[in-house]
Amino acid sequence: MDWLNAIIQGVLLGGLYALFAAGLSLIFGVMRLVNIAHGDLIVLSAYLALTVTTALGLGPLLALVIVVPGMGLIGYTLQRAILNRTMGDDLLPPLLVTFGLSVIIQNALLIGYTADPQNLQAGAIEVASVAVGSIALGVMPLIVFGTAVVVIAGLQWMFYHTAIGRAFRATSDRQDVAQLMGLNRAHIFGLAMGLSLAVTALAGVFLGIRTSFDPAAGSARLIFGFEAVIIGGLGNLWGTLAGGVILGVAQTLGAKINPGYQILAGHIVFLTILAIRPRGLFPRIDG
Amino acid sequence: MPDPFLSIAGLNAHYGDFQALYDVSMRVDAGEVVAVIGANGAGKTTLLRSISGLLRNTPGEIRWRGAPIGGLRADQIAGRGIAMVPEGRLLFASLSVEENLVIGGQSGRKGPWTLARVYALFPVLKERRNQASSSLSGGQQQMVAIGRALMSNPDLVLMDEISLGLAPVIIRQIYEALPGIVGEGLTAVIVEQDISKALSVSGRVYCLQEGRVSLAGQSDTASREDISRAYFGI
User: Fold this and answer.
1) Which residues of A fall within a CB distance of 8 Å from B106?
2) Model pTM score
3) Predicted confidence (pLDDT) per residue in B26-44, tens digit
4) Residue A237: its chain B contacts at CB < 8 A?
5) Domain A2-276 in this protein, CATH class
6) Domain ranges, residue B142
7) Which residues have CB under 8 Å from A153's CB, separation 6+?
8) Are B78 and A182 within 8 A, CB to CB?
């Protein structure tokens, strides 16, 4: 029963990892941008939520109403003002700029919030649980997992059934011809980054409720996000959810064997999948 | 004389340090079909890329209805009613046939062209509307590319080598559809390798040679000797 419990907790943890990864997957899919600052933007969202909760006295879940659109706006502005200037045939300039951005965000957080670990207090819901047989399921992990499923399903629906999704796919296929259709690439890219950071805001707030964070906490989240994306297969959103779940289960099972093995087990599973299926478990089939 | 629809004056276009067009001037009046011919590398595609905004130029060198557009982005020029059928078709591979057409019309310009009209022009596309665009034959893909351009209800359509790589029977089909397209009062600039095809569908013709206009005249009166001299420079 302990093992079953570990697997179920791992699946729920995977929902959080899928939220880390969904934003990465989205912008890579639309504009081939690898965002090294993604983990730091997750942490930035957590700090924004911290400021909102202390300033307005809201709970962190209510703070999402401000933090999600706020991060979306930051994403759109960031893309239009800085990242669009680096976009081109070469993947390296945006990679380097987001690396620089990562350093800047970490240090700005250090100045603004000090290095003390913080966390977001959501109150009684943090420790609430529902019993299923002999297994206790945390209400917060269930909310996080449910949110991840809804977000992934929502993004998937948007990509294949809306005009903006069609514009994302067309721009991803051929940027120059998309311009000929009257789509302003700079604006489309801005929207993609805005959406990516809106999802990131959810991830950041859930992270802050689950565990404590400090200005340097981003890089580990970036790695978990990348691993979930790669395990699931680039450009496949449901694959990203599966990747997050696999990573989460690997970590909780590793921790079950020995608490020190938690992170290591996740990396080993990731490397094994990368070695056997370099394109991930569910790669997108390109026409 | 009324303002020309499109007027190009002294256009110099560059790819980095390489100059592809030298002092090119041409005019296109409303409702006419203008052919641009020339050997490979003469600058035909560069000319269309300049007009459509994929290649940015000095603003005043290209004027559309009197307004300088040489410095605008491609999406801004598309919004002003200039559409392009690019060489090699360049459909969106991850979009279905119908999505490729719909995205052509996403700018919302009003006019005669709708999904139904494009399907009436090319019925085979209706049968395959939900297929991936990459699963179509070359000729069908060309129909999608033309339909996609028409869906924006353009005032001017630029067609780059629409017969390239297609079987003669398909080329004939596509050119037979052309009168139905231009008959809507549409103005067209057609780049074509096949000189006799180009002359037969156009009213006027420009020939480019090594980035310069080497001939400009009426399509029906241009003599073979003049054209081959303008084409090959001998």
Assistant:
1) 163, 166-167, 181-183
2) 0.92
3) 999 998 999 999 988 899 9
4) none
5) mainly alpha
6) 6-232
7) none
8) yes
